[in-house]
Amino acid sequence: MRFSSDARDRGFDLPGIRALPPTRPFAWLRAGWQDLRYNPLPSLAYGLLFALGGDLILLAALDHPHLLTVAVTGFFLLAPLLAAGLYELSRAHAEGRRPLFIDSLRIFRRHGESLALFGLLLGLAALIWERFSAIAFALLTGGGAIDGSVLLTDIVLHGEHGLFVATWFALGGLLAAFVFCLSVVSVPMLLDRDCDIATAMLTSLRATLANPLPLLLWASLIVTLTLAGFATLLFGLVLILPILGHASWHAYRELVE
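-> structure tokens emitted (257 positions)
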């Protein structure tokens, strides 16, 4: 089924969008696991890099609550771009190839300009969120020094600052949902087809509008599994992130004709 749009009449060459069953994301996860099993070493290498890099960032931001929270939420904003190498590994699997880790990095050279521009857009979203969080935490503490452990204890154990936490999560959720709608198939499409960023993001938005239930489930699975990885000091992400990255490639291939 194609999602109707008059964008073609305005000069965009947009692909058709398939309407999928609500439970289809579970099939994407299974396909992602198969891709990982087919060529495990480069996939796990990406997962290890993400985990080690994330641990270093969290350690550096531990005494600065707004940076700590931005590091966690910013990860969700930038993840579609960070997983580009995993998309390339999945595409190679579909073609019967088993590239090395270094081979998958060539995707950044071949599509460097489009990936860099898309990365700038995601980085701008992350920067806006960081500035908002900095101002919000400054207002919460009256502009004084912030003790991260004390603040987290007050929020988690004592249930203080409930309105602040609810507002922060609501606004962060809206930003994350907006980025998700624009990026759910954008990066795989930029790597797979000769298209510009506007076409990729518009296709991603149309895919979301045509498949609200499966993509809502997909977003929930991404958040749940990623938070489970964070709960293991990020080392669970060594396995989780490659599966999610490969699965995102299969999501793109099924959603976009």
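Residues 18-255 form one domain.
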